[in-house]
């Protein structure tokens, strides 16, 4: 009985036959010519410089790399990426890595940004994984230290800490500082998740554990992942961004059992009226969406509402 044909043993890769196929004659000839140059360089060198041999070897490699793979066009494999025709690049990945004279533009390219983004997630997860029960508190960085809103933030932070919760804020001044201050003064864990901004802000002095982020979306992931609820003090666009992202996550059931409390009926009343009178009235949201959040002026009620499902 005839032995089954072993294709892996008998078939040769087109590149191996580049010197003997119609498509590869030119590349194969170039490779052979360069290879002869390599041998000559070694024989002639004697006690001289090995550079001619190195250059000839490089030329041979380049000729082999540029030879068509039986398709009639050049083909290059760099890891999982295949490049053909005009997309073939010169050099190798290792060469570009080790070439200290190369441009540093790669630092600002998307592949490198992906690595930075990944590193931020790793740092955030590593720092906060053992945080324990926590509540995120949001509010304006512009809240004055002598305002009622600042005092409310201190009381909320203190009450949450006394209830056994860590307090997570954006780490900045104003309402964020107030909540961190209250948690610290009550002996609780005060966490600040800072963000790189065009103007220097830094972490406030009441933060026990701080992590700074380049990217808003990584930071917002940490706010949600490591908190059991949100308390939202009066704030601006950043506070509204965090509020509506949390509402969207709850509405779409991306997160479950996640209470959201708006503190300050006078401040948030206009927004709630707009949601009811415009969004719901025009069919852009359902009446049940009003149950996604609570509004209160009482610190104890706010803490009770945001911690009730923990």
Q: What does this protein look like?
A:
The protein is an alpha/beta fold and 310 residues long. Helices cover 46% and strands 12% of the residues. It folds into 2 domains: 12-82, no CATH class; 116-307, Rossmann fold (3-Layer(aba) Sandwich), CATH 3.40.50. Strands 6-5-4-3-7-8-9 form a 7-stranded parallel sheet, with helices on both faces. It has a two-stranded antiparallel sheet with strand order 1-2.
Overall domain count = 2
Number of strands: 9
- Supply Rg: 32 Å
Q: Order of strands side by side in the largest beta sheet?
A: 6-5-4-3-7-8-9
CATH class of the largest domain: Alpha Beta
One letter per element, helices H and strands E, the order comes to: HHHEEHHEHEHEEHEHEHEH
Question: What is the approximate shape?
Answer: elongated
Kindly identify the CATH topology of the largest domain: Rossmann fold
Mean pLDDT: 80
Distance between the termini: 73 Å
Number of helices: 11
Low-confidence stretches: 1-50
- Biggest sheet details: 7 strands, parallel
For the record, the CATH architecture of the largest domain stands as: 3-Layer(aba) Sandwich
Beta strand %: 5-15%
* Structural class estimated from helices and strands: alpha/beta
Q: State the helical fraction.
A: 40-55%
Per-chain topology:
Elements: H1 7-10, H2 25-45, H3 51-66, E1 75-78, E2 81-84, H4 93-98, H5 110-128, E3 134-138, H6 148-162, E4 166-169, H7 175-185, E5 190-195, E6 209-213, H8 216-225, E7 230-232, H9 237-251, E8 260-263, H10 265-280, E9 294-296, H11 299-307
Parallel strand pairs: 3-4, 3-7, 4-5, 5-6, 7-8, 8-9
Antiparallel strand pairs: 1-2
Helix pairs in contact: 2-3, 6-7, 6-11
């Amino acid at each position: 009985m005839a032995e089954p044909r072993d294709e892996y043993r008998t078939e040769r890769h087109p590149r191996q036959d580049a010197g003997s196929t119609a498509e590869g004659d030119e590349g194969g000839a170039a490779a052979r010519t360069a290879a002869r140059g390599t041998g000559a360089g070694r024989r002639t060198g004697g006690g001289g410089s090995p550079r001619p041999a190195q250059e000839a070897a490089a030329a041979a490699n380049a000729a082999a790399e540029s030879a068509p793979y039986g398709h009639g066009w050049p083909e290059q494999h760099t890891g999982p990426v295949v490049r053909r025709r005009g997309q073939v690049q010169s050099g190798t990945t290792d060469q570009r890595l080790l070439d200290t004279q190369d441009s540093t533009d790669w630092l600002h390219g998307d592949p490198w940004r992906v690595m930075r983004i990944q590193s931020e997630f790793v740092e955030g997860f590593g720092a906060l994984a053992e945080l324990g029960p926590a509540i995120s508190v949001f509010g304006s960085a512009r809240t004055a230290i002598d305002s009622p809103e600042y005092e409310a933030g201190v009381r909320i932070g203190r009450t949450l800490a006394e209830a056994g919760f860590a307090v997570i804020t954006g780490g900045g001044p104003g309402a964020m500082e107030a909540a961190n201050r209250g948690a610290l003064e009550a002996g609780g864990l005060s966490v600040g998740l800072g963000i790189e901004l065009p103007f220097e802000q830094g972490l406030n002095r009441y933060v026990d554990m701080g992590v700074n982020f380049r990217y808003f979306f990584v930071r917002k992931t940490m706010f949600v992942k490591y908190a059991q609820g949100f308390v939202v003090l009066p704030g601006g666009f950043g506070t509204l961004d965090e509020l509506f992202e949390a509402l969207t996550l709850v509405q779409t059931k991306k997160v479950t059992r996640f209470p959201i409390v708006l503190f300050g009926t006078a401040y948030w009343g206009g927004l709630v009226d707009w949601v009811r009178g415009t969004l719901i009235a025009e069919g852009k949201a359902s009446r049940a969406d009003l149950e996604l959040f609570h509004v209160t002026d009482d610190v104890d009620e706010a803490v009770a509402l945001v911690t009730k499902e923990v």
